């Protein structure tokens, strides 16, 4: 995360397009907001658009606006989000959800800084910085022919990968303290202490919903708290291990069970003083995961790469590394 923060500060001073990659709830919008606030465009508007929340026709109108009579229900002219973001920043969340038709129009805005409203022939020019975000590997989407390669390279000027919360558990105490402060003020309470056992439980949890899930649980705890401390009884059953566990799954492949099984095998088979134990176990996990995914995809490399969230060339290299070429078909 320190590397993410350094890159955020560095790129904020430029006008380069930024592509934020990370799981849902990992904090992509927070990084986008920080880039805008630290930029020379900070006095301009910051406009958010969730591309996955609207149909193609509605999203086109939302992004570029429309003129009266352009379609049924268009009773007046409407300014689109790109116009609204003029001199500022537009944040396109879930950019992977856009259709190929809309991607052509987005490419034109990025290249030419111009567009037409829906139903209009007048060209509008706009000065706007674009920050896009995706919770999927966009290059895998390119290889699957669901995302235009030229648009990908226009967006991917400066990629920033945000790690999931389960890979940065040391951040959890600071995040909890931050959210406690926010929701204590919002609810006019004074929950300022955290029971050590509660922090440990939060750090042991898998966090499939990432920081957004943590934020929700802290808000819930503050709302229910009667004293000044966040205690174990204020945490949901999922965190305490009493609810149904939501493991990391990849279309039929149980990632958690796979990792646990391979790690246990590696620890039991390896001497305590063996060198590079971590690397060897990680390689075994990766190899077994690739084997399972390739089998579930009928040995088709393109499908397997998409499911794994990597591009086809990377998968091909991994297959060679682990001597699994016979597991794959072109």
Describe the structure concisely for a colleague.
The protein is 47% helix and 12% strand.
Care to describe what's here?
- This protein is of the alpha/beta class and 330 residues long.
- The protein has three domains: 2-163, Rossmann fold (3-Layer(aba) Sandwich), CATH 3.40.50.300; 166-240, Helicase, Ruva Protein, domain 3, CATH 1.10.8.60; 249-327, Homeodomain-like (Arc Repressor Mutant, subunit A), CATH 1.10.10.
- The protein contains 15 helices and eleven strands.
- The strands form four sheets. Strands 2-3-6-1-7 form a five-stranded parallel β-sheet. It has a two-stranded antiparallel sheet with strand order 4-5.
- α5 (100-112) crosses α7, α13 crosses α14 (301-308) and α14 (301-308) packs across α15.
- The longest helix has 20 residues, at 277-296.
Largest sheet descriptor: 5 strands, parallel
The coarse overall form would be globular
Q: Into which percent range does the helicity of residues fall?
A: 40-55%
Question: What is the arithmetic mean of pLDDT?
Answer: 85
DSSP, total strands: 11
How many domains make up the 3D coordinates? 3
Q: Provide the spatial order of strands within the biggest beta sheet.
A: 2-3-6-1-7
The CATH superfamily of the largest domain turns out to be P-loop containing nucleotide triphosphate hydrolases
The percent range for strand residues is 5-15%
The structure class reads alpha/beta
Distance between the termini: 37 Å
Structure keywords:
330 residues, alpha/beta, Arc Repressor Mutant, subunit A, 3 domains, 12% strand, globular
